[in-house]
Sequence to fold (608 residues):
Amino acid sequence: MARAVSSRAKVGYTVAAWIVALLIFFPILYTIITSLKSEQEAIAGFDLIPSFTLESFRAVQTQNDYWKPFTNSVILSLGSTLLALIVAIPAAWAMAFSPTKRTKDILMWMLSTKMMPAVAVLVPIYLIFLRTGLMDTRIGLTVMLMLINLPIVVWMLYTYFREIPGEILEAARMDGATLRDEIVHVLTPMAVPGIASTLLLNVILAWNEAFWTIQLTTTNAAPLSAFIASFSSPQGLFWAKLSAASVLAIAPILILGWFSQKQLVRGLTFGAVK
Amino acid sequence: MGRITLENVTKRFGDVEVIPPLNLDINDGEFVVFVGPSGCGKSTLLRLIAGLEDTSGGRILIDGQDATSTPPAKRGLAMVFQSYALYPHMSVRKNIAFPMRMAGVPQDEQDRRIESAAKALNLTNYLDRKPGQLSGGQRQRVAIGRAIVREPSAFLFDEPLSNLDAALRVGMRLEISELHNRLETTMIYVTHDQVEAMTMADKIVVLQAGRIEQVGSPMELYRAPRNLFVAGFIGSPRMNLIDGPAAAEYDATTIGVRPEHIAVSGTEGKWKGRIGVSEHLGSDTFFYVEDTGLAETITVRAGGDIDLHHGDTVWLSPDIAQMHRFDANGDRIA
Fold:
């Protein structure tokens, strides 16, 4: 029997949920509000009603070209994600279907690299990039972002692959499938939902990555995260312009996230609930 | 052809020997059932034959060729799994076509074999559905269809009916037997259900702890079980195994009498007892007779019309000619 919930309790829960949601969303909301203010309004103090001027957006567009970092963001996030999938699918496949005694350790070790503060390897990476001429190049940054997110991609795919019953792969083997056939015709199609949510999440992570993108680029390969950072300059803080730039930077990924909510939620809770 | 020979085949998982050296001959066209309690190694043995597990020693010959290290795909065997193991993203048609696609069978030949398999298995109307839209019995038929179209030299069945409900199980049992009669291909069938073993097999292999306890036709096993384990495992209800003075009377440590080989009488007989539970099946009646002075409750099978009930005093007389005698090691005394 379903638990009886009184309508008063229902109203209470709804209000509480809205409050929590609003608290989480508030920073983004206030960024949007500020982006619609003039520079004077923005520094004047807390105010939820902007003058709805598009002046900051116009300024951002004319001072700095928006489309170049946007293009860079698209290339970097998609490129690094695809590259990560190419590396991670065989890796996760091997660990999920031919585990050894050390598989768990390897997975743990991969994850442990994410526990290390990024600054710890800044100098060596910086020097490598400098000496190999990768500094401020899209290719260098794509590889960097791929490596950063690889542990998470491997982990997510590993979890998905583990959910695929081994008997189905054995059936494929009995049916005469080679290893390649098995991956192409059976495993990958079955793992598509999992791969899709991994892809989405990784695109978002790569899109939002701000440490390496700011450290390793100047102009040529700078994505939107670096674009935002360029508005907090030594000449002073321009809150409205900074907000406008932020809104422009997060809008594409916000829209993507909105349309792929279902996939994302499934991706994030996979294995936790069945 | 489908002649399979196991020569001293062993399997170890780490330090645990699940199958000690084992020898077995399976003739072409035979329906062989591996039966035994869970954990007896019957599925492992099947997987060794399939090539899904590597042997730890010994040789597996298929039609005289050493196949011990041949990959599963190249052994020419087809397998039906307990979980059906259908490809959930493919339609029934594509599921059945998959092994042929892998083997590069021409499209028109594929279509012909799919049509004929679908007709034989009553799947014609379901060819464009996905496995998720089928019932358990239909899924199992698709799995069998996928096995048939390969035209394998032998079929391997790994407890294929245990996920089905009782009524469906009986139906599928008949269908598989009919399939065997029609195709005359070697079939190796793993089950823990001795009724399936008795009804389907040409040859039953009774396994316990990875060892073969006895190999023989269902009736050989029924009439002359080689030891106590086989005696207790084959036959339903179970054979009455009696030890103590009642057995010593027949120069045995244990005697075995099947429920159908004991006569019941309300007036006279060898062992006196009282009816505990009685099960009336219509065609037969099973009495569980207690207080006989023997260690065990004695199961007796009588006709459906017999008029005896719970609490009645009865006399039981075993049919001496049908009695099985076992020594202290549990082996049959000839």
